[in-house]
Amino acid sequence: MKKIFIIVALMGLGATAQAKTIAFGAKGGINMPQFDISTDLKGLESNPDLGFHFGFFGQVNIPVIGLGIQPELLYLNQPISYFDYAEDDKASKPASKRASYLEVPINITWGIDLKVVRPFIAVTPYLRYAFSDVETYADKVVQEAVKAGKVPEPEYMSSFDYGIGVGAGIDLFSKVQLMGRYSWGLSDLVKTGNYKVKSITVSLGYIF
Hints:
Order of helices and strands: HEEEEEHEEE
Shape: elongated
Distance between the termini: 41 Å
Strand order of the largest sheet: 1-2-3-4-5-6-7-8
Number of domains: 1
Structural class: mainly beta
Largest sheet: 8 strands, antiparallel, barrel
Strand content: over 45%
């Protein structure tokens, strides 16, 4: 009986050893932001829309205990919500602009290596930097609304954002990764009140 247990344990270690301890990959997918807005700016409200992302990642897996670190460098195309004012209030409607972000998430993972598949859970702190305009309002329409006394002067959003996410995924044959993540933005993107971004991210990656 003792020999059987030893054989089973060795087989388990062998399966764990099949996983790559250091690897690199590329990934892409979709993201859907959900805006958490509480601000003195009139008419600013949520307008969720799909965005996309793509980029590269590295993997460092620690055999036996199942821990791993997966830093990533991603291009993120993210819709930004604002309220499109018209001269006739009835014609006003939610709208959005798109901003380009450079995102650096660091996935701290724990999983079980089962030779063919490695299911895992992840905690992900991240940083974002916008390298395109991220305005809360459309300039032309807002300037007209400002003159009419409907809204205060437009406020520009911060280019920096940071937060934390939780997620889960699977690595198949140490080659393909499917991962989903829910993220909470912790940074107030405008000075007047709260404007935080929560998002759902789904990505598919290939491990070289």
